[in-house]
Q: What sequence folds into this?
């Protein structure tokens, strides 16, 4: 069968051009927000000074230190973590064919919280600092992070094992993820009930997701994982589009649906686990940003994957800046803001009738 | 011969679903698989498309055994239109472009775009091109699904109840479209259908299944009221209408 008219559909090219324009606008907006975010905080730095410092010219040593050691790693972490959480949500929603799939609804955050609580309680990583805001610190952040990460992986592993016993159906994956979330939540409450004051405070403090926890080394880790995952997801963009059309159709197009589903879940879960383990729980980005992007540019994963990343970056960096300004000179953990911003948007989507 | 099915047998767990299924399909022919609900029509289509593996037997397209091919290679030979396809916020153009997946290496090529464009023109879908499929009617969506299967450039089209949720006008449109497509592209089609009269009108040959076995494989002239009564368990009469048999329940 030979088909081809050697003609290129102009209309379609314009339509693709429009989507690319959206993405370019999104990227520009996140760069602007990044610069604004660096300039704002307890100490405000003029934008021009920020720009000069970023290109390597020292205006004042104080600004230099604030920007390079505090603001820039924190803001970049917001950009990268927001992108990672949002793209995980997109992939989970696609491979599980469920609009409610996201790192939080699938129990990963609860598993991480339990891991942190476990570390505080049994590995003695929570201690009290002298005074002031943020009095509770985690004395050995690496152990806590590792413990949170390990429990995320255990949760993911259990979900994947249960679902492969039951022919890898998306419903089984979603429901077992929700069930694992509840188990870990109950286990965390159990630990909290028996914890002393300091341990309890450390456990609760840990769950407040905060981009300020990351320094350059954490940022490098999250960025490299994001980069690898993005390449993998983008490589599978057509597979996700095919799965959106239904499992049968995707199989008829030569897609190994089971493999794409398990691998997609695994990569998305590992990336989320690393972000959550390093920064704490940051809610709603993974659920809401994909839906906002779907409304704006549709379900085509060629644009949905980069688009959601940008939406995640924009939402997290705006929330992060707001969190820093709201009760300045003190800062709120960003997780509080994302949920406050995210929940109303989510309710709006439910009322308007959400699309996957 | 476009397609050969020989001694196909399929078991679900320990229960036998299909056995001793053998038939072939000629070029430019529409073969309808008929039978009561639950007899295994969809299962048979899935076996042919290598979505599920038969317990024994072979399916060959132009002499090539499909069990030796990868999923992607099968997808270059067989285009499948599932009974249900989910609708997402994808334009008709992009949904049809999905059919080029088996031929893609790193991404879409200019040739892919040009093929999709040609098929859209041929099926007269220009008005739908940039509309989202989740905003389309059942008939429009079905046409998009068929277009997607055609751009796969397959040898065989499999359609699982392509007309089941459509009104009379759309049913006729889809079946006429199918007739045009197989003639123009030298492909063959296998469809499953419940509407006996629609099948008798538009398909060239028929395979009747009963209790997982083939009861008959014949053309229009060999359809008798005893055969139909035996397959569906309903007493019927057959009348002639412009050369096409029409089945009417007693």
A:
């Amino acid at each position: 069968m030979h088909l081809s008219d050697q003609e290129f559909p102009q209309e379609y090219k314009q339509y693709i051009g429009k989507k690319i324009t959206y993405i370019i606008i999104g990227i520009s907006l996140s760069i602007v927000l990044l610069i604004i975010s660096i300039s704002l905080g307890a100490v405000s730095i003029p934008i021009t000074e920020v720009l000069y410092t970023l290109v390597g010219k020292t205006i004042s040593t104080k600004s230099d230190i604030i920007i390079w050691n505090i603001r820039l790693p924190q803001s970049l972490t917001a950009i990268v973590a927001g992108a990672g959480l949002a793209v995980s949500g997109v992939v989970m929603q696609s491979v599980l064919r469920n609009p409610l799939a996201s790192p939080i609804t699938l129990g990963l955050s609860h598993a991480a919280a339990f891991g942190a609580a476990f570390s505080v309680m049994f590995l003695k990583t929570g201690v009290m600092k002298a005074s002031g805001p943020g009095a509770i610190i985690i004395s050995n952040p690496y152990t806590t992070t590792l413990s949170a990460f390990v429990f995320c992986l255990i949760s993911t592993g259990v979900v994947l094992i249960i679902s492969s016993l039951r022919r890898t159906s998306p419903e089984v994956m979603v429901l077992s993820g929700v069930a694992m979330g509840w188990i870990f939540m109950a286990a965390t409450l159990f630990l909290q009930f028996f914890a002393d004051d300091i341990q309890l405070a450390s456990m609760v403090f840990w769950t407040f997701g905060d981009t300020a926890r990351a320094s350059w080394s954490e940022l490098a880790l999250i960025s490299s994982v994001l980069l690898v995952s993005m390449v993998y997801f983008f490589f599978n963009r057509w597979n996700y589009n095919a799965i959106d059309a239904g499992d049968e159709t995707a199989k008829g197009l030569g897609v190994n649906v089971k493999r794409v589903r398990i691998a997609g879940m695994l990569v998305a879960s590992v990336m989320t686990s690393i972000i959550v383990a390093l920064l704490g729980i940051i809610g709603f980005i993974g659920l809401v940003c994909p839906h906002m992007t779907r409304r704006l540019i549709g379900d085509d994963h060629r644009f949905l994957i980069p688009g959601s990343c940008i939406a995640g970056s924009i939402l997290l960096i705006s929330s992060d800046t707001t969190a820093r300004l709201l009760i300045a000179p003190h800062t709120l953990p960003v997780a509080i803001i994302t949920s406050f911003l995210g929940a109303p948007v989510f309710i709006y989507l439910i009322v308007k009738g959400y699309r996957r | 011969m476009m397609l050969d099915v020989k001694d196909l047998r399929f078991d679900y767990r320990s229960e036998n679903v299909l056995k001793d299924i053998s038939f072939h399909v000629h070029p430019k022919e529409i073969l309808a698989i008929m039978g009561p609900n639950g007899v295994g029509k969809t299962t048979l289509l899935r076996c042919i498309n290598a979505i599920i593996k038969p317990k024994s037997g072979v399916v060959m397209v132009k002499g090539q055994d499909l069990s030796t091919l990868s999923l992607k290679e099968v997808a270059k030979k067989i285009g499948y239109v599932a009974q249900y396809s989910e609708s997402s916020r994808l334009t008709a153009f992009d949904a049809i472009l999905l059919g080029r997946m088996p031929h893609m290496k790193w991404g879409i090529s200019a040739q892919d775009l040009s093929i999709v464009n040609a098929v859209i023109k041929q099926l007269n879908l220009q008005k739908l091109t940039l509309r989202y499929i989740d905003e389309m009617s059942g008939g429009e969506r079905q046409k998009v699904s068929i277009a997607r299967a055609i751009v796969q450039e397959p040898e065989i089209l499999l359609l699982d109840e392509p007309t089941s949720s459509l009104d009379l006008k759309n049913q006729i449109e889809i079946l006429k479209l199918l007739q045009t497509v197989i003639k123009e592209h030298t492909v063959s089609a296998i469809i499953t259908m419940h509407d006996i009269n629609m099948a008798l009108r538009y398909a060239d040959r028929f395979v009747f299944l009963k209790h997982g076995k083939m009861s008959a494989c014949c053309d229009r002239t060999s359809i008798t009221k005893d055969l139909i009564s035996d397959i569906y368990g309903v007493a019927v009469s057959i009348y002639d209408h412009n050369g096409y048999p029409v089945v009417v329940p007693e």
Remarks:
- Chain A has one domain: 20-352.
